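JOB MANIFEST
job_type = single_chain_structure
chain_count = 1
residues = 306
[input]
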Amino acid sequence: MRIVRSPDELRDIDPTALTITVGNFDGFHRGHAAVFTELVETAAGRLGKSVAVTFEPHPIAVVSPDRAPGLLTPTDEKAEIIAETGLDTLLVVDFTSEVANEDAHEFLSSLRVGRGSHLVLGYNFHMGRGRCCDIGKLSELGAEIGYGLDVIPPVEHDGRPISSTRIRRCVAEGRVDEAHTMMGRPYSLRGEVVAGDGAGRLLKSPTANLRLPEGKLLPRDGVYRVSVVSLEGRTGLLYVGSRPTFGEGERRAEVHVLDLDADLYGRTLSVDVLELIRGERRFESTEELARQIAEDIARARRGSPG
């Protein structure tokens, strides 16, 4: 899969060979996967090219910054997941106020969507200034311009459509197992290990302090069982919180990797968040905290498939 940053880089694709989808695809859940399966299969059947268009930053961060959602999958992580679908080209559009003010016809024209092109979109797709162009209007526009349109129905969980909004709520509430079900894979964190204050080593459970991408959504404060994918899937504990036992500080994410004593500074760790073990709490002493950490580690071991 090639990744491009400008619609001009799609000029090597004949519009009649273009099969395209557009969306944020944050969290890339099972509903998104259904769209991409149809997209790739349709493009292959038409002997054409499959193209997906996504945006950076999230459009709400530009249109209404105070309502900007936490990111489930920053662009680089999203691109890695999308590459596994067999997509030919991913276009990452720099979302600006100018892009936000384009109408649907203008935006599709910039992508060179024309007669003979084909769109594959989710059932609740909207685009254009003020999200005013829905599937019905895009169908009318398609009849005018001459492009085809396939609409993919929702994929449901517990009787309701899966959405990035639902997944964000699950993650924010610590229901990472439900997020896993809707995404089709565990919720993950990826960040560079940076220096902390050494408190974990004093407690005989050294932690790797993760520097995460700006805007990345953290699970609710607490302790989680995790799989450290970048260390061959080793079991670990993820702590999210502000460490109230040591006095309130900034919110952070720290990983303790079981049975590993190694210098991880400067490395990038990828962590699959599997299970909430307990919520955040303040302990009366470091000794009490150390005992609780030992219990957390024991529980993580019991939950580990190994």
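[summary]
The two ends are 35 Å apart (CA to CA).
The first strand starts at residue 2 and ends at 4.
exit_status = 0
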